[in-house]
């Protein structure tokens, strides 16, 4: 009798589990729920450039539950610079990712990419620049002539270099560029294979940790002060078909960004937990340097805002330098209805 009772109970339990599995399999295999009790929506997010401290806020938003509260199950993957991030998102292999806005303008205005829109600002000022180390013979932009630099082909640093060179008084034809990978650029510099690399200026602590030398940074913002830094993009299709989803994701990511800037060491530890090769001390230092770029007098107190007038100035700078083949307007690259309001 006891054996029969156990058999019936086991069968009932198996049936119940089967029903639960069937009910959940259509939406989310784990059965996880968001803040509203609905099944989590799977989203793929690309970082801007590898897995450094400057991109740790995405891991923070995931680890602290900000994405889950907004209804998302997010997979974070390393990006390979502006051009590659755009291609991956437009191609449907990822849903969101940050690109340098100026790099996006160059891609769009020169017919190299389309069908993407920016929906929030990550940094209010561009962090693009050239990085080298003491002893490489580079102390000013003019010193770049005759030197060899490395970066990924689609990087904004590389694509914006002709404009920077023109404004900084550098003969771009005397500078040699070679291809590199996001994760190995600093090692290439440390090995002395190149004289400098394309890099965000907040990468200074990581460069010094890798090369064991004092870094020398040449920020593009010294000659192009109105340019935005990274912006969050998605495909034009997603922006049009799922505006509420875009707003929820953007808000959760901005929450992660703000938390990471307020708690840089915790954010660095979270990055280390998810990316074992990362350096927590360098990552925390990157976030501390980045804080001054995320907010500015132009953005007020709200993180993520985008201003049409400033974007128009960026376009004018690129047009004045002869870097755009096509005329652009701010709303061709920014969806201001989806962007955070100041």
Structural features, described:
- This protein is an alpha/beta fold and 342 residues long.
- The protein is 43% helix and 17% strand.
- It has 13 helices and 12 strands.
- The strands form 4 sheets. A 5-stranded mixed β-sheet has the order 9-8-10-7-11.
- Helix 6 links the parallel strand 8 and strand 9.
- The radius of gyration is 23 Å and the shape is globular.
Key features of this structure:
alpha/beta, 12 strands, three-stranded antiparallel beta sheet, disordered N terminus, 342 residues
The number of helical elements comes to: 13
Q: Strand order within the widest sheet?
A: 9-8-10-7-11
Structural class: alpha/beta
- Beta-strand level of the residues, as a percent range? 15-25%
Distance between the termini: 71 Å
> Rough shape?
globular
Outline of the structure:
By secondary structure, the chain is of the alpha/beta class. It has 13 helices and twelve strands.
Record the SSE blueprint.
Layout: H1 2-25, E1 41-46, E2 49-50, H2 56-63, H3 66-69, E3 72-77, E4 79-80, H4 82-90, E5 96-100, H5 101-109, E6 116-121, E7 128-133, E8 148-151, H6 156-168, E9 176-179, H7 185-190, E10 196-200, H8 204-211, E11 215-219, E12 230-235, H9 236-241, H10 243-262, H11 264-274, H12 280-294, H13 308-320
Parallel strand pairs: 1-3, 8-9, 8-10
Antiparallel strand pairs: 2-4, 5-12, 6-12, 7-10, 7-11
């Amino acid at each position: 009798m006891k054996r029969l009772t156990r058999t019936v109970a086991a069968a009932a339990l198996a049936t119940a589990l089967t029903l639960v599995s069937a009910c959940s399999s259509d939406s989310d295999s784990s059965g996880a729920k968001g803040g509203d009790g609905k099944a989590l929506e799977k989203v793929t997010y690309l970082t801007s450039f590898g897995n450094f401290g400057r991109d740790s806020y995405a891991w923070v938003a995931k680890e602290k539950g900000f994405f889950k509260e907004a209804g998302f199950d997010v997979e974070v993957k390393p990006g390979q610079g502006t051009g590659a991030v755009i291609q991956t998102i437009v191609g449907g292999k990822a849903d969101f990712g940050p690109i340098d806005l100026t790099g996006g303008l160059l891609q769009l205005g020169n017919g190299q990419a389309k069908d993407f829109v920016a929906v929030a600002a990550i940094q209010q000022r561009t962090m693009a620049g050239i990085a080298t180390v003491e002893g490489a013979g580079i102390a000013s932009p003019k010193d770049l002539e005759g030197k060899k630099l490395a970066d990924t082909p689609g990087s904004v640093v590389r694509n914006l270099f002709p404009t920077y060179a023109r404004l900084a008084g550098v003969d771009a034809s005397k500078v040699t560029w070679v291809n590199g990978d996001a994760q190995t650029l600093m090692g290439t510099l440390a090995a002395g294979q190149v004289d400098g690399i394309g890099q965000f200026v907040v990468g200074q602590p990581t460069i010094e940790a890798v090369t064991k030398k004092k870094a020398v940074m040449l920020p593009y913002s010294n000659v192009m002060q109105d340019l935005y830094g990274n912006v969050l993009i998605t495909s034009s299709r997603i922006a049009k078909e799922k505006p509420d989803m875009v707003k929820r994701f953007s808000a959760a990511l901005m929450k992660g960004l703000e938390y990471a800037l307020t708690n840089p060491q915790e954010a660095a530890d979270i990055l280390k937990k998810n990316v074992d090769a990362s350096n927590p001390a360098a990552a925390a230092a990157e976030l501390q340097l980045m804080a001054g770029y995320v907010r500015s007098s132009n953005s007020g107190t709200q993180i993520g805002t985008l201003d049409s007038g400033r974007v128009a100035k960026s376009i004018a700078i690129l047009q004045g330098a002869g870097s755009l083949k096509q005329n652009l307007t701010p709303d061709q690259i920014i969806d201001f209805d989806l962007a955070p309001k100041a």
